Amino acid sequence: MTRPTITGTPDAVPTVALDELLESGDLDLLDRWMDQADVVEIAEELSRLSREQRAVPFRLLRKDRALEVFELLDPSLQQELLEGLRETNVRQLFEEMDPDDRARLTEEMPAKVARRLLAGLSPNERRLTSTLLGYPEDSAGRLMSPEVASLRAGMTARQALDRLRQIGRSAETIYALPVTDDHRRLVGALGLRDLVLADPDTAVGELMDTEVFSARVDADQEEAARLIREADLLALPIVDTEDRLVGIVTFDDAMEVLEEEETEDRARAGGAEPLGRPYMATSVLRIARSRVVWLLFLIVAATLTVNVLQVFAGTLDRVVKLALFIPLIIGTGGNTGAQAATTVTRALAVGEVRFDDLWVVILREARVGLLLGGVLGLLALGPASLYVGSGEIGLVVSLTLITVCTLAAFVGALLPLVARRIGVDPAVMSAPFITTLVDASGLVLYFLIARAVLGV
Amino acid sequence: MTRPTITGTPDAVPTVALDELLESGDLDLLDRWMDQADVVEIAEELSRLSREQRAVPFRLLRKDRALEVFELLDPSLQQELLEGLRETNVRQLFEEMDPDDRARLTEEMPAKVARRLLAGLSPNERRLTSTLLGYPEDSAGRLMSPEVASLRAGMTARQALDRLRQIGRSAETIYALPVTDDHRRLVGALGLRDLVLADPDTAVGELMDTEVFSARVDADQEEAARLIREADLLALPIVDTEDRLVGIVTFDDAMEVLEEEETEDRARAGGAEPLGRPYMATSVLRIARSRVVWLLFLIVAATLTVNVLQVFAGTLDRVVKLALFIPLIIGTGGNTGAQAATTVTRALAVGEVRFDDLWVVILREARVGLLLGGVLGLLALGPASLYVGSGEIGLVVSLTLITVCTLAAFVGALLPLVARRIGVDPAVMSAPFITTLVDASGLVLYFLIARAVLGV
Known about the structure:
- 2 copies of one chain form a homodimer.
- By secondary structure, chain A is mainly alpha-helical.
- Chain A is built from 22 helices and 7 strands.
- The first copy, chain A, is 64% helix and 6% strand.
- In chain A, β2, α12 (157-167) and β3 (176-180) form a beta-alpha-beta unit.
- β1 (6-7) of chain A pairs antiparallel with β5 of chain B, so a sheet runs across the interface.
């Protein structure tokens, strides 16, 4: 075995997958593996197992490691694991989670189970979790931790460090330290780095940055997360409507939100609903369900193409050779449209493009489409003419490629922008949707051009 | 105007886009905006401008803010900005950047310019940058910062904090503190949080975590970044082949790598090469260039469909009605394949699926495809038969949908897995590629089933 270039533990861990270990039935080796592998690896392996397989290795974990692994799992898997554990273990795990992670898990549970578990929490933990659950879904309030360590502007750096030593253990983070006035209103922020590096007698008020980023409890989770990533923040203070500090969102929770959003966008861009759980832990039926509505919708849209061809059945009857190029033309149109849609959807998602840019963007894309269609049309002219032995049909194919590519790029750019405007996720408008739409109009163009050129 | 829920500065900033401000020619307002907007916003607005527009507002920035904004820009834009600035300003910006950002910018520059700028650096900064440039492209060594603040196990917490006060200012981060032995070998790590919260007389050796994640200088950048995200690390120590600490990668640099990779995957999933720069700052010609090779390749693949139809031209001549359903059938096959490919590509990218799972995955997807095809085929039977007034053609369409969906899901799952195995980016194998491949085989199935059922 070559030495791994990325390593979590200095000792060699048996490089066997957990599912193989389970099948082998070698409990000694399993126990050793669970003891030596790092928590990230264990969480990853557990995510690949079926629901039944998952319970045994999890119960083999030492108590402290079990919590760490549990926190790394997807909420859907956390819930399934809980169902397989004894009540006392469940209560313990639940009590020891961070309030924000607990709130997210609670959303996944049947309401009855959630209520019972919440009732079992210590009063303080219950209060923290209930506060979070009081904010609207997908708001920054749900994502934040209310356990925020804050400073006062009047403290010296030394006093601030002493205070942190007292209150810091229970805080979600002490790397980013919001500074408040006497009414708990946010007036600045200070990184732990600057506090540690400062002369101990300097006042926090002098050290702090007064141009501080913050988000309101009711702000959109994803926007808050994006701000954290774009401004490279370690954490973002969350304030209420009166600017009073109520919590903090850390970068790792923000990354999770963005990754989830990314996964959803990707799934929709591929024409399916997001699974919302790890692939290997999802049943065939659930996967099929995530896709069937999309397929049904797309096939209904595709009946448009049947109708279009029916209208031109006369033309087709007389020049059957036109049928040979139908898949090629609609395929190319679909691909050009998908390219434009993917680019614009991405640019919208990362904020490079806004709805105000509508005209600029669709005109650019139409020009890109014209350019691409021109190149393809020119290249196709010769081979198409030779293949069917008719320069006229070659010309029809060539002209159709030029117009279809221009139209497809235009539509591909337009739809995500319109979707964003009317409040629909632009990812919904991408590749498969646009391909299906462009198919029908491509066929119409093809037969209109054929009629004009061939006079049939 | 409603109060924004996410805010960077307490004062109201004119909510005008920078490009409109530039067009209006109101230099006073422009100056005020540049002064009040936060650096993230300024960097975002600059990314939307054309190359010519960008130079003026950038020069209006105060010196300290100019550097902050500059560091937030994409390396391709950084380079263009430098070209428009006076030599002294360029030298100053270049000198003040972090060594790792400087190394990345250097890659974008013409070699001659890069050499001249590097020669102008102070000896220390030049040494740091040259070290980074000595590591292979896309290695963790290129990404890391050599300015790492490390501790010794024998120090007390107080001594460690004192040391940080001396050396911490120039370090890339002091939030994650690698601990080394007398030979600079990595033996543990300590978060600044634990150091600050600890009793000042405790030894670092007692506080530190000895199960520490690390990566070798020659490890893949993306793998290192993924580890940082998955294990929620603030930073990852980088070691040489003898385990000696040589640098550190922070989470914000890791996020940049992952975002770039994500952008590339998305672009390829949409059938285009990544632009590598913000959309609005990219010319039409460059966008067209990023797509044309893909389109050409796909259109050449699509000629397969022309050939298939040519082979079945006799059948088509006798039953022209079969042509009506060609776009619908290949469209549905393509969509089913795209769904499978997107799911598997994503699962591979986040590590939920590995090549070893090949059989499990493709059999699952084939079952998903059969299920989906069954539903669609059953639903299509009636309408298709009625529409063309022939139950036999309805049956052909129905049977073809079942087989095409199964095949498409199978191929859609297989290709990304094979791509990963042979070292090709699985994103290359997604939607447009698979759609085009499935088109031809869908047609063959359609006509074979038609021949069998209709006996033509």
